[in-house]
Specification:
It is a single chain. With about 700 residues, this protein is of the alpha+beta class. The N and C termini lie far apart (about 65 Å). The protein has 16 helices and 26 strands. The chain folds into three domains: about 35-45 and about 50-125 and about 180-275, Aldehyde oxidase/xanthine dehydrogenase, molybdopterin binding domain (Aldehyde Oxidoreductase, domain 4), CATH 3.30.365; about 145-180 and about 280-440 and about 550-700, Aldehyde oxidase/xanthine dehydrogenase, molybdopterin binding domain (Aldehyde Oxidoreductase, domain 4), CATH 3.30.365; about 440-545, Aldehyde oxidase/xanthine dehydrogenase, molybdopterin binding domain (Aldehyde Oxidoreductase, domain 4). Helix 9 packs parallel to helix 15 (about 670-680), helix 12 runs parallel beside helix 13 and helix 14 (about 590-610) crosses helix 15.
Length: about 700
C-alpha cells in the first residue's frame, strides 16, 4: 500500500477549532440561531412494564404558551416502525421505565417542563423483570454479536484441556450497568419544512450525521435527500451518540406538528440515563489452564449479559479473548437475557472493554498461581499469528509495549508478595494489563476535493468531530495528500449536504475519512494534473483494502497502575498510571495523547466508581445524575502518562494509522484492579472496587 509522505502528519498541531470553542463561537446543536423556536419537554413512563389505559392532557394544553401536546393517542403514525426503539409514541405498550409516552411543545423551556408535569397517564402495570442472572431459563444465543461477529467459537476441547492442565484458574467476574455521560447532553433541533426540498432539517448532537439522516428518512416517508442533518461540533459522545435514539424521532414528530417553527429538544441529565443507551452489565466465566511453565493450553470465556425486549443489542464481550493469547483449546460464548430495561448501546470500546477487564484479571490470577511475573506470563503467551484466523499480524508489538512500560514504570520495584509493601497507613501495589482493539475502516466514506486557486483547497466530507480533533487531524491528512500546508486547506464536515461519511465510532473514523480524502486527492491528480484550474474538483470514496483479508490488523497496548490503599478504611488512591501503545502512525501527538489519557481516565472510573443502580422492584435508575453516578475526578489520579511506539502500519491505510479512540480504556480497569490485589491480597472480581469489598480482606491481612 502506498502511504503518504508525512509532513503535517505527525506534528502536534494545535486544535484548529480551539479558538472557536474557548471563545464560545463554536455552535453546538442547541445553539444554532433560529427564529421563533419552540421547546420540547418529554413525558416519560413511570412504570417499567405494562400498557397505557388513559391519557389526560387537558391541564397541560391549557397552559399559556403551550403549542401542542403529543401522546400515543393523537400522534400521526410513522411510515416504518421496524426499529422499536425509534417507533416513538406508536404504541401504548410500555417496555421500560422512562420510555417516551408524550411530549409538550411550548414557547419556552420552563413552560414545556411545567406542562409536561401536568400530563396524566394511567397504566395497567406489571412487576418488571430487570435482574440479570446466570440461572435464568430464558437465556438465548443471539445470531451475532456487535457488529457482526460469531456468537460462539470453539477450537479443540477446553473441558478436557482444563482437566489435564496442572495449573488452572476458574473464576467469574461481573461488570455493572454503566452509562455514558458526555458533557453536551443529547440534543436535536428540528424544523419541518413542508414547502422545501429539504422537508426535515435537523441540528443534532451526533457521531454521524448521515447515520441519523438515513435512519429517520424512512420513518417519515421521506427520501434520504429530503432530510438534512447538521452537526459541526459535538460535546462528547463515547458511543452514545453513534446511532439515533428515540429523542431524535420525538423532535422530528414535534416539528411536524408545528410546521415551519423550529423545535429544540435537549435531554436532561436524568433523561439521558434511560434514553441514550448504556453499557450492558456482564457476568463473565473465565477458565484458563496452563503448564507449570505458564504456557496456556486452554481458554474459556462465557458471557451472560442483558438486552432490551424491544431491541436486541449483543455486546461482543468475549471477542477480544479469541485473538489475545496463544492456546490450542479455546471457547467463547455469549448469552442474552431480554429484560424490561432501556436499550443498551455502544459505550467506549464495547465488548473489548469489559471483556479484557475479565481476561486480564484472570491472567493476573494465573500468574500468581504459576508463581510467574505477570509481565512474563503475557510475554510467554504472545502468539506469532492471530490464533483465530491464522493470519500474520500487520504489526503486533504487545511485547515491546510491556517491556517498555515495565522499564518506564519501575516494575522491578513491585512487591513480589501481595500486601508486603506498606508506607505508613497505605498498602502499595503495582498492576499490569494488556490492551487490544481491532483496526476498523468502514467502507462508505467519500470526500470531495476542490481547488480554489492560488494554492488554496476545500475538502468536503460529512465526518464528525466529537471532541477528538477531527477538524485538525483530517486537515493535516489532506494537507499532506495535497502537498500543501494546513493553512491552505479549508475543511468542511458535519453536514449531510456533504459527501457521506461513516460514523465516528469503533476507532474507525479517521481511518475511513482520511482514506477517502487521500483517494479524492489522487483522483484529482489523475483528472486535473499538477496545474489545476480554479474550480477543478474530484470526488472518491474509501477504497477497498485487500490487506484486510490477508493480515490481522489490531492495535495493542500495555497499562500499568500504582495504587495506594488505606489499610484501615479500604480507600483506594491511584498516584500513577502509564499506558504504552502500538497504534500505527500517530497523526497528531497532541490530540492523540488526549485520546489515550481520556480512555485511561474512563478505565480508572470504571475500576473504582461507575455503577448504575437499577431498582429491581420498579426498573428505575436510582442514581440518574452526576451527583450519585460517580465518575473519576482529578483527585482520583495524580500522574497519568501515555506514550506510543514510533511506527506505521503499511497494511492499514495510506496514513499508516490504526485508530486510537478506544484502546486507552481497554485494559486500564484491569491494571488498577490487579494493582489492588498486589497491594492488599484481595481479589476484586465485581466492579467497581469500592472500599466495602476490601475491608474483610484487610482485616485478615492485619490478623
Amino acid at each position: 500500500m502506498t502511504t503518504l509522505r508525512p509532513r503535517a502528519v505527525g506534528t502536534p498541531l494545535r486544535r484548529l477549532d480551539g479558538p472557536a470553542k474557548v471563545t464560545g463561537t463554536a455552535r453546538y446543536a442547541f445553539e444554532h440561531p433560529l427564529e421563533e423556536p419552540l421547546y420540547v419537554h418529554p413525558v416519560q413512563a413511570t412504570v417499567a412494564r405494562g400498557r397505557i389505559t388513559g391519557v389526560d392532557t387537558e391541564a397541560a394544553a391549557a397552559c399559556p404558551g403551550v403549542a401542542v401536546v403529543l401522546t400515543p393517542r393523537d400522534v400521526p403514525r410513522l411510515e416504518n416502525t421496524g426499529d422499536e426503539e425509534l417507533a416513538v409514541l406508536q404504541s401504548g405498550m410500555i417496555a421500560f421505565r422512562g420510555q417516551l409516552v408524550g411530549a409538550v411543545v411550548a414557547e419556552d423551556v420552563e413552560t414545556a417542563r411545567h406542562a409536561a408535569s401536568l400530563v396524566r397517564i394511567a397504566y395497567e402495570d406489571e412487576r418488571p423483570d430487570v435482574e440479570l442472572r446466570t440461572d435464568r431459563d430464558d437465556l438465548y444465543a443471539p445470531e451475532t454479536v456487535n457488529p457482526f461477529f460469531a456468537t460462539d467459537t470453539e477450537d479443540g476441547d477446553v473441558d478436557a484441556a482444563m482437566d489435564r492442565a496442572p495449573v488452572t484458574v476458574d473464576v467469574t467476574y461481573t461488570t455493572p450497568m454503566e452509562h455514558n455521560n458526555p458533557m453536551e447532553p443529547h440534543t436535536t433541533v428540528a424544523v419541518w419544512q413542508p414547502d422545501s426540498a429539504v422537508r426535515l432539517l435537523l441540528y443534532a448532537s451526533t457521531q454521524g450525521v448521515h447515520t441519523v439522516g438515513t435512519a429517520l428518512a424512512p420513518l417519515f416517508g421521506l427520501e434520504a435527500d429530503q432530510v438534512r442533518v447538521i452537526s459541526p461540533h459535538v460535546g462528547g459522545g463515547f458511543g452514545s451518540k453513534g446511532m439515533p435514539h428515540a429523542h431524535d424521532v420525538l423532535a422530528a414528530l414535534c416539528a411536524r406538528a408545528v410546521p415551519g417553527r423550529p423545535v429544540k429538544l435537549a435531554l436532561t441529565r436524568q433523561q439521558m440515563f434511560t434514553l441514550a443507551g448504556h453499557r450492558t452489565p456482564t457476568i463473565q466465566h473465565l477458565r484458563l489452564g496452563c503448564g507449570t511453565d505458564g504456557r496456556i493450553t486452554a481458554i474459556g470465556h462465557d458471557v451472560v449479559e442483558h438486552t432490551a425486549h424491544i431491541k436486541e443489542f449483543a455486546e461482543q464481550t468475549a471477542v477480544g479473548t479469541r485473538m489475545m493469547y496463544s492456546a490450542a483449546h479455546r471457547r467463547t460464548s455469549h448469552r442474552l437475557a431480554a429484560l424490561d430495561v432501556p436499550v443498551p448501546s455502544w459505550m467506549r470500546a464495547p465488548g473489548e472493554c469489559p471483556g479484557l477487564f475479565a481476561l486480564e484479571c484472570a491472567m493476573d490470577e494465573l500468574a500468581a498461581a504459576c508463581g510467574l511475573d505477570p509481565v512474563e506470563l503475557r510475554v510467554r503467551n504472545d502468539p506469532p499469528e492471530d490464533p483465530e484466523t491464522g493470519r500474520p499480524w500487520s504489526g503486533r508489538k504487545l511485547v515491546e509495549c510491556l517491556r517498555e512500560g515495565a522499564r518506564r514504570f519501575g516494575w522491578d520495584r513491585r512487591a513480589a508478595a501481595p500486601g508486603a509493601r506498606r508506607e505508613g497507613r497505605e498498602l502499595v501495589g503495582l498492576g499490569v494489563a494488556s490492551a487490544t482493539y481491532p483496526y476498523n475502516a468502514g467502507q462508505g466514506s467519500e470526500a470531495l476535493v476542490r481547488h480554489e486557486g492560488e494554492g488554496r483547497w476545500t475538502v468536503r466530507i460529512g465526518a464528525a468531530d466529537i471532541g477528538t480533533g477531527t477538524w485538525t487531524t483530517l486537515t493535516q491528512i489532506a494537507a499532506d495528500a495535497l502537498d500543501a500546508t494546513p493553512d491552505d486547506v479549508m475543511l468542511q464536515i458535519g453536514d449531510t449536504a456533504l459527501p457521506p461519511a461513516t460514523v465516528a465510532g469503533g476507532s474507525s473514523g479517521l481511518a475511513s475519512w482520511g482514506s477517502a480524502v487521500v483517494a479524492a486527492v489522487r483522483a484529482f491528480r489523475e483528472r486535473h494534473g499538477d496545474d489545476p484550474a480554479p474550480g477543478a474538483e474530484a470526488r472518491a470514496g474509501t477504497p477497498e483494502n485487500p490487506d484486510q483479508e490477508t493480515y490481522a490488523l489490531h492495535s495493542f497496548g500495555a497499562h500499568f497502575a500504582e495504587v495506594r490503599v488505606d489499610a484501615d478504611t479500604g480507600e483506594i488512591r491511584v498516584p500513577r498510571m502509564l499506558g504504552v501503545f502500538s497504534a500505527g502512525r500517530i497523526v497528531n501527538p497532541r490530540t492523540a495523547r488526549s485520546q489515550f489519557l481520556g480512555g485511561m481516565t474512563m478505565g480508572l472510573s470504571m475500576a473504582l466508581h461507575e455503577h448504575t443502580v437499577l431498582d429491581p422492584r420498579t426498573g428505575h435508575v436510582v442514581n440518574n445524575d452526576l451527583a450519585d453516578y460517580h465518575i473519576a475526578s482529578h483527585a482520583d489520579v495524580c500522574d497519568m502518562d501515555a506514550v506510543w511506539l514510533d511506527e506505521e502500519d503499511p497494511h492499514s491505510n495510506p496514513m499508516g494509522t490504526r485508530g486510537i479512540g478506544e484502546i486507552g480504556i481497554v485494559g486500564s480497569p484491569a491494571a488498577v484492579i490487579n494493582a489492588v490485589y498486589n497491594a492488599t491480597g484481595v481479589r476484586v472480581r465485581d466492579l467497581p472496587a469500592t472500599p466495602d469489598k476490601l475491608l474483610a480482606g484487610l482485616d485478615a491481612l492485619r490478623a
